[in-house]
Each structure stands twice: as C-alpha cells, then as structure tokens.
Amino acid sequence: MWQLYQFPLCPFSRKVRLLLGEKGIGYELVRESPWEKRDEFIDLNPAGRTPVLVDAERGTVLIESAAICEYLEETVNQAPMISGTAVNRAEIRRLTIWCDEIFHAEVGEPMMRERMVKRLVHRQSPDAGALRQAMKAGNVLLDYLDYLLDHRTWLAGATFSLADLAAAAHISVADYLGGIDWRGHEQTKRWYSGLKSRPSFRPLLSERMEVISPPAHYDKPDF
Amino acid sequence: MWQLYQFPLCPFSRKVRLLLGEKGIGYELVRESPWEKRDEFIDLNPAGRTPVLVDAERGTVLIESAAICEYLEETVNQAPMISGTAVNRAEIRRLTIWCDEIFHAEVGEPMMRERMVKRLVHRQSPDAGALRQAMKAGNVLLDYLDYLLDHRTWLAGATFSLADLAAAAHISVADYLGGIDWRGHEQTKRWYSGLKSRPSFRPLLSERMEVISPPAHYDKPDF
C-alpha cells in the first residue's frame, strides 16, 4: 500500500492525490509538517519537502510531485493524464509547471506563508500588503486561465489532463486561504466547479487544516 | 531547424543545450534577455522565462526546460537520458528537479541576481552578505552531491543521465559567477571535470556573458 507524506494544504500533495484518485490507486495519508524538519523525514527526503510517496514493502521511495506524477503515469495505464502527441504532452507539462512554479510562487506560497505558516509556526499576524499583492497576482493569473478556457475544452487542449489536476490543486489551496476573488472569472469558475464535483476531489474538499477555516463557498461545487 | 531562446548564463537553457548536444540535435541560438520583458517574447511565453525552443517551420513552440527535455527524450531515441526502470526514471527526475529548484533557489538565483542582474539591469553593487550566504548554501549542497557520487557512478545511479546534465548546467553558472568553492569537494570536482571534457559542454564553456568575466579555472577541465 502506498503511503503519502503530506499536509492538508500542500498543493503539490493535492496534485498527486488527485492523480491517485483519478487512476483509482489506493493510498494511506501520513501527516507530515515539513516546517518541523523532523529528522526521519529529512532522512527520507533531504530536500525536506512534501509530498513523498512510499511503498515500504517494496522499498520504493518517490520524491518530488512532478517525478511522482510521471512515475504513476508510466506504471498505471488507467486514466492517462499526460497523453496525446509529444507536442500535446509538452503543453500538458508546460501548464503543470506553470501552476507548480508561477502560480505557486505568486499566489499559493505567499498565501500559505501569511495565513498558515505565520499562524501555526511563528504566531504572527499576516501582512496585509503581502496578501493584497498575492490576490492581485492571482487575479492576473486567473485571467490567463480564463483565456485558455475560452479557446480550449480543458486547460491543455481537448483532453482532461494533469494540467487540470495541477491547476485545481493549487487553486483549491489559495481558495481555502481566502486568496481567490472569483468575480470576473466565469470560465475558470465553471471549469473549477466541474473539477470540484469529481470523486477524486471530494475527499480533499472535506478535509480541514487545524486552526484555519476556509470560506463558506470553499467546498461547494456551486459557488 | 530548432531555435533556442536563451542567454549565456541561463542554467535552464544550459541544461537543454547539453541535452541537445548529447543527442546530436542541431539548433541555433537566439539571444533573449528575459529581464527586458520584450513584447514578442511574452507573446511566445506568457511566463516570460527562458528557455523556449521553437521550430518555426513546423509551428512548434516548446516552453519550460523540464517539458522541453521530456519532449526531446520522447522524440529522439539517440542518447537516452531518462532511462531505466520507472524507479530509476523517478530518481533521475528527482535529482533534476533538485538542481532546478533547490540548487537554483539557494545558489544560482542569488548569484545571478547579485552578480549579473544587479550589474546589467540596476547598475548596483552585489550584496556581500547575500553572496556569502549563497556560497555557504552551495557548500552544503555540494556535500550532498559528494555523498551521492561516493555511492554511485553517476548522480542518479549507474547510468549517465539528465540529472548529470542538470547539475553540470547549474554548477557551471554558479562557477562562472565565482559562487563555487571547490575545496573539499573532490568527488564532485572529479565528476564535473569529466563533464567539462564532453563535446556537448565545450561550446558552453567558451561563451561569455557581456561585462561579466568568469574566474580563470572556469573553462579548464583540469582545475
């Protein structure tokens, strides 16, 4: 049985969980708070980051969400999420990286730092300016997703893919932390509403991170 | 003919160039300075980052170095660089991401910001404290590479792989900018010396970035 080391608001772990769910792969959750820098976790992953996917029986340790997703894609035929021509696959990977790096750096990471890490670790109040800047950046990045969804059925093209899972994972964390202003983003809102209704997404939406409550609309498919 | 949008000290472009070189794929260089935020380049890649690999005749535009490397690996059989079992491939990808994210964030990015961007764009002097911190971080990260090379022939295992190309690309940029103290890193130094001697690496080592000179040892395979 796979064990996934993660915490509820880790967007990279959410991406892997959505992929595991879509592919129908069973797994157990292991709670890991990377900011605690637990020795045993650093031994497992010297970079100290979640997610890590472990099969203790086989001695398999998979690290870095992108490497984990590629592994699952290569080893499980069901529900292919990096499919199509080589050019299609490059576009799926481009947008997945866009979510993991650009969206995360400009929106997810500052929201997590201000509203989660400061509260849980440093017992500090969030910086209002940093929150405003993250929401403003999120607004611009959601415009880009609106643009893509104006021209395509799914984010990377005609097919549902890892790019959709990655975007939903990152948006869900920012949304939980009150970082998404949905006004004026009808295309992305409609697409996200569909994602929220998928069986792979339901368990994530019902989870809560200690101390921090999401806004009322967070887990509603119609919002 | 492929055209690669890049600048000489972009580590992600260097990784792609090493892979193109190893696979024997011809390409032209197009100089792009992403900090200029040129409109035509933003049209090509909304994220505004190098490298971008373009085949104008076929209308193919490939964005994000990880997506480009996977594309080249999928479409060109020669010199496979993400090979072996699914677990081997996951390890190659983990270490490639480790270089692209951890090494870059802690060493490459601060070295580039302090010694390149500040000089070329802001006409400022580097911050000595930031440089010291990057070199200190580099020392710790090179210890990890030493450890890997104590146990393995190549970084990701028994086979020369994309992880070696990625590490060489990132180290070469930090080394150009005077950010690597090689003392005490005999394993990594021996490995890097072998990398520097490869035909794929020679063209990169002979290039210079305007205004900025590398240290004397930079392009010498024996250093």
Automatic annotation (TrEMBL), chains A, B:
Domain GST N-terminal: 1-80
An annotated Gene Ontology molecular function: glutathione transferase activity
Domain GST C-terminal: 85-215
E.C. no: 2.5.1.18
Catalytic class of the enzyme: transferase
Domain of life of the native organism: Bacteria
Gene3D superfamilies xrefs: 1.20.1050.10, Glutaredoxin
CDD domains: GST_C_family, GST_N_family
Entry coiled-coil feature ranges: none
Keyword annotations from UniProtKB, A to Z: Transferase
PANTHER family: GLUTATHIONE S-TRANSFERASE GSTA, GLUTATHIONE S-TRANSFERASE-RELATED
Protein name as annotated: Glutathione S-transferase
Lineage: Bacteria, Pseudomonadati, Pseudomonadota, Alphaproteobacteria, Sphingomonadales
